[in-house]
Amino acid sequence: MHKFAVVLISIAALTLSAPAQAQRDFSAVEIRTEIVAPGIAVLFGSGGNIGVSYGGDGTVLIDDQFAPLTPKIEAAIAALGASPVRFLINTHWHGDHSGGNANFGKAGALILAQDHVRDRLLAEQAKDGNEAAPAALPVITYHDGISLFLNGGSVRTIHAPHAHTDGDSIVVWQDANVVHMGDTFFNAISLPFIDLDSGGSAQGMLAAVDRVLGMIDDKTVVIPGHGPVSNKVGLVAYRAMLADVIGRVGAARKAGKTLAEVVAMKPAAQYEIKDAFISGDAFTTAVYKSFDSAMGHDHDDMDHGDKPAEHHH
């Protein structure tokens, strides 16, 4: 399982905690901007893809990458002619999507996220042994979703339960026909990372993709959490991959095959991307383990309580 261990190390780099972010050198990172619709852009840098919704009523930011990149992100937002960030939505808790929260929070942005995101960010702060950083935490949380009405349209979030994590939000611009899928969609750069320890599951990933496919058309701009901007065709292909690997792994598991035996079958080999941070073996392992965890997830999200859904191994 040496290869899988290497993958875990690279994932650890992806989801860097605040102290680790401070030590990494981001000086060479450039922020690239792609305008995908009037008043909507995507920023690419290091970490998750950032969505920007801007206009006369203020700027909404979807994710914020790593803390040291905040000045560059702010400069890219200003270059769009947009005002400073008024609302910040985290698609999930990982540090490559929420690392800049404290900076934007201190600058006056109101942070919104699904309930479990705040819980996991609090737990992460406690684990780091540092003083709590209230400015980094969502001020408004929601269970199923929330809508913001500004700049002549709406920005709506939809909770995708137990997908990449237990707190994923899909962000929809209904009027502009744009959707930001966070890490429920990894496009062309790697097989998807399913964070089982944060309540994610392969079945939830597939359900999230199906939910989005039911809302979009051939002209929809689909922003993934990682990789280039895509569309319905790209998402349909991604769904086929997910369904194929889940189906193969599920059938083998039902036939009594062990994890090692299923990994040796290489069910994801045809979809593997060279030098990607999630290998076919790592993805297969996560899918196999998802069958155990998914059984405990079926009814978790009926609970509207304060506690994160319990994770079953």
UniProtKB/TrEMBL annotation:
It is found in: Periplasm. GO terms for biological process: antibiotic catabolic process; response to antibiotic. Residues 47-226 form the Metallo-beta-lactamase domain. GO terms for cellular component: periplasmic space. One of its GO terms (molecular function) is zinc ion binding. It catalyses: a beta-lactam + H2O = a substituted beta-amino acid. Its cofactor is Zn(2+). The keyword Nuclease does not apply. Monomer. Belongs to the metallo-beta-lactamase superfamily. Class-B beta-lactamase family. This is beta-lactamase.
